[in-house]
Design goal:
- This protein is mostly helical.
- It has a single domain, classed as MetI-like (MetI-like fold, Orthogonal Bundle).
- About 75% of the residues lie in helices and about 0% in strands.
- The chain is built from 13 helices and two strands.
- Strands 1-2 form a two-stranded antiparallel ribbon.
- Helix 10 runs antiparallel to helix 13.
Amino acid sequence: MNVFRKYKWGGVVFAGPAFLLYTYFIIISIGRSFYYSLNYWDAISPMRFKGLANYQALFSDPDFAIVMSNTFVGLVSALIIQVGMGLLLAYLIYRTVFGMRFYRALVYLPVVLAPAAISMMFTLFFNSDVGLFNSLLRAAGLGSLARNWLSDKNVVFYAVLTPMIYQFIGSYVILILAGMQSIPEEILESAYIDGAGAFRVFRSIVVPMLWDIILMCIIMITTGSFKAFEHSYIMTWGGPGVRSAFMGVFMYNTTFLEADFGGGSAIAMLILVSILLFTTLFRRIVARFDY
């Protein structure tokens, strides 16, 4: 009993500081953000209680509807492309006999670069006068398809979405590849002996055994999509208007450019609730396919 008490209090002593820090910086911060969202505050004058007026103003704001649409489209696109490409590239690297480490490092390289660097690179690529994409289109005789990619409201969202999806594919390749390498070799060898081809092994054995890894990738993509900021802000400042803005950019502009800390806090709370709802939804969907 003395030993139990000794280790019990030892755990409290070691976990206590981390728990206090987590409570202060996460739990209390969320509570304060919710309180701010119920007030009008410009960080200078005293707060004025508004109740749910900030939330009502958001849901009636046409710009907020565009931003939410951008966020959802970006989320679905990222899920399809990043998870799909992650599975495909990870399987190709997994089956590579020579140079696997080189290809693994190559596919992960964009992830270690700063989002600002990737954003500036694609800003140059999408430049309407000297950009790579328009130059390639003109060289191929498709000059009619050249666009002002970062100012045309019909295509600017997809121009901003491209580097966002491209940069982080490598993260999911590495995660899925690690999951593939943990699959017992005997299972795959048995399938090959029974006459299964590479695609059949991938579809019927590899993917079903990676559902936990895939769920983790989905959760990471979901949280990242709702917090997306750097690429949109650096490339276009979310413009023209809010055509290329995501929730993170809209929150920043509302809070600091419009000096509406109450409205910005309301957006932050909606981001939190959306992440929790979508994460729960995806967990339930993936659970149905978990073997």
